[in-house]
Structure formats: C-alpha cells, structure tokens
Amino acid sequence: MKINIDKNRLSLKLWEYFMVFALSIVGLLWLLQIVFMNSFYETMKIREITKIGNNLVEMYKTEDFQEELISLSFKQGIVINILDEYGNLIYPLDIFDIIKQPRLNEKLFNDFLSRLYLSNNNYVAYVVEDERLDESTIIYGAILENDDGSNYFLYINSMLQPVDSTTNILKNQLIMVTFIALILSLGLSLVISKKLSKPIEKITDLSKELALGNYDIEFDKGEYTEISNLANTLNIATKELSKSEELRRDFLANVTHDLKTPLTVIKSYGELIRDISGKDDVKREKNINIIIEETDKLSKLVDDLLELTKLQAGLSKLDLEVFDLSDLAENVADRFKYFVEEQGYRISIEKSGDTKVYADKMKIQQVIYNLINNAINYTLEDKLITIKIEEKNENVVLSVIDRGQGIDKDEINYIWERYYRSGKSHIREKSGSGIGLSMVKSIILAHNGEYGVESEIGKGSRFYFKLKRYANVKD
C-alpha cells in the first residue's frame, strides 16, 4: 500500500531544517577537529614562536635578555640562538662550543638570510622539513641591530610536533558524538516540529468548519505570540462573518417583505378592476393609480439596490457641478409635504454661511432624502425634524436631527452597513431593505467626504455629512 506523504507539511519542514542544522554543526566540528587540525595547529604554533621572538628582539641589549632567552628555551622546549653574519653561534656558548665553534649549515643559513631580507618586516617565520629528523620545523629569524660592528641574528628553531595520534583520538570521539547528536537531534526535532505545528493544524481544522458555515467556533490561543495573534484575528473575522450572515438573512427577509407587499397590492387591485370596477371609470382609475404607485415602489427598490452595488464596486461615475447645498436641502424637504400636511410632521431648516459645494447634485439629493426619510421613520410624538446646513472652516456640514429614541451603542457601529436596519421601535411603519444609510455612506465616501452619527438613548440622533466648500476645492 502506497503511503502519500505531504512534503510541504510544516512539521516535516521543521524536522528537515532542524536536521540540516544539526548536520551542519557536526560537519563543522569534523572540519575543524579533523580536516583542518594540522593546518590550524601549524598556524597557532607559528604565531606562538613569532610572539616569543618579537618579545626577545624588544628585550635585546637589556640586562635580562640572556636570562630570558635561556628561560624561554627551557620552558618552551625550543632552540634559541644568536648568530653572526656568517652563521656562527654567538650565544649561548658552553666550553665545548668555544672549542668547536659551531656554525649553522650553510645552505640553511643562506635560505634563512634570503627569506629575512626579502621580508617586509624585520622578522621572518616559516616551516621547513628537517631531513635529518624527517620532521617539520618552524624557523623564526630576526635582525638584532648593533651600534658598532655588524648585526647579529636571532634564530629560533622549534619542532612541529605531529598531531596524528591526537587526530585519531578526536576522530573516534567525534564518531560517537556524531551518532549521539544525530539521535538526539532526530528526537528533539520531531518533538519541536510537532509542538509548533499542532496549534496551526488545530486552527486549520477549525477554519474548515468555519468555511462550512459554523460560526459558533472559537480559535484557541497558543503558547506563541504569532499563533495567538492569528487566533485573535480569526476570532474577529468569525464574529464579522456571523454578523454579515445575520445581516444577509435580515436583508432577504426585508426585501422579500418589501417585494411581497406591493405585489400583493397590485394583484388585489388588479382583481378589483377585473371583478368589481366594471364600467365605473372612477373606481377603475383609482385602482390603476394604486397599481402604478406600488409598481413605482418596486422600481425604486430595484434601482436603489443597483445603485448601491455600483457605488460599492466603484462603477458609478460622479457628475460634478457647483450648487448650493441649502437650496438643495429645501427642495428635498418639499418632497415630504405629505407628512407635514397630513401626518403633522414638522421640518425645520437652519442655514448659515457659504454653503456652495462642488459635487454630484443628484447623488447628494439622494443622500439628503435618505437621511430625512430615516428621521421620519424613527422620530417620536413631537414629529420635529431639524435640518442644519452650515459653513465650518473649509467644509459645509449638513445635519439631520430627530428626537427619536436614539440608537443603542451596540448598534451604532453597524447602521451604515448594507442590509442593516435597526430593531428599535418607531412611530411610522418603516419600509425598505435597510440600504438607505449604506447608500449615504457610499456616496459621501465617493466624494471624499466625511459622515457620522451622534446619538443618545431617549434624546434622539444627529446624522451628518461634510463636503468641501466650493471655494476650497482644488482643481
């Protein structure tokens, strides 16, 4: 049976990265301790001999020079000599050296002088093969300047001890360390990868439930900040989706009601015309007018839905012109004469300052109409609605104020959303699908204006919008 393994799983990727890291560390240890051991040891030994030689050069001609030379030679196990310009040993000398007058091998001494004089420094350090001992030797040389006569040379010779035996020991140890490290890394990487991936897998499973429409789920916070932030974000998104779904259901219920009512009226009066009106022209005309009015309501509802869709999609173009917002507000208020004359509503208009704006007159007219209609729906018994148009700094502000019950704080953030309709009681039976304020929001945003609401329970609400005053509009 073939097992399908998802190579892109987070747990597998974390395990791979951890193993690569562990192998890299072990590989680095092998390189430093085994492969580069000899070169590393040689470099460190040359530095050590060079430091000793440079210190002796600085101490030359001091009282402690000879004592320090002998001391270092014994402590470090190295040969330290002072030679003249012919390679003869000057110091240290014992009684036998005085008789024998030892001299450095001519070939070695000539190579030594050649390297020293070609050096950019006053000293030289290098490695040569000692043919007698068949071992590598470190040679250090420096010029010891004398005030009178020829100069002397500091010559240091140190055997470069082989580290093969040490390398073999380290190699055996590293084999054990590598085996143990890989086992531990394998186990630790599996634990860590599972611990890190588990909360993400849990969030993924819950997200699938969310995609199926279950909005009652809650994403748990993890031990890590990033997981907690992700869970918080998804919880907020879940709440918003839940509210959106609720608004959608309300919208469908509202639209169904608003479509069904005119259709029922149209059908009823159509039947009256067919069955009762007969040749009575007055009744027939009255019934036909009612049918036309209800048809107009349906047409306006559809037009509003289409216009809102265009506005929110950015497809509705603005036909900009200069006009007085106060005059437009008065014209729109006149369309509500029926409520003033027949139902006792009072609409007061207050204006001050320069209220000319540069905007789409038809769309701003729709904004004002929706705000006044909203106020009529929710005002209380005094039926007073105040419309204020005033100049404020560089803006013109239009406010529609009612003395209704006000809006609850829990609802005030959602009244501008599409499909939303407040559940508060009202005086006049409200109709509409809950898109009036959403249209206000979309139209004002399309004009780069500002909108808002101030409300207090039991005292009423003030809906307003701001547009740039025409004098301050830049081309």
TrEMBL record:
It is an enzyme of class 2 (transferase). Gene3D superfamilies: 1.10.287.130, 6.10.340.10, Histidine kinase-like ATPase, C-terminal domain. The chain crosses the membrane at residues 17-41, 174-192. It is found in: Cell membrane. The keyword Cell membrane applies. Residues 254-471 form the Histidine kinase domain. InterPro entries: HAMP_dom (IPR003660), HATPase_C_sf (IPR036890), HATPase_dom (IPR003594), His_kinase_dom (IPR005467), HisK_dim/P_dom (IPR003661), HisK_dim/P_sf (IPR036097), HssS/ArlS-like (IPR050398), Sig_transdc_His_kin-like_C (IPR004358). Residues 194-246 form the HAMP domain. Keywords: ATP-binding, Cell membrane, Kinase, Membrane, Nucleotide-binding, Phosphoprotein, Transferase, Transmembrane, Transmembrane helix, Two-component regulatory system. GO terms for cellular component: plasma membrane. It catalyses: ATP + protein L-histidine = ADP + protein N-phospho-L-histidine. Its EC number is 2.7.13.3. GO terms for molecular function: ATP binding; phosphorelay sensor kinase activity. It comes from the Bacteria. PANTHER family: SENSOR HISTIDINE KINASE CPXA (PTHR45528). This is histidine kinase.
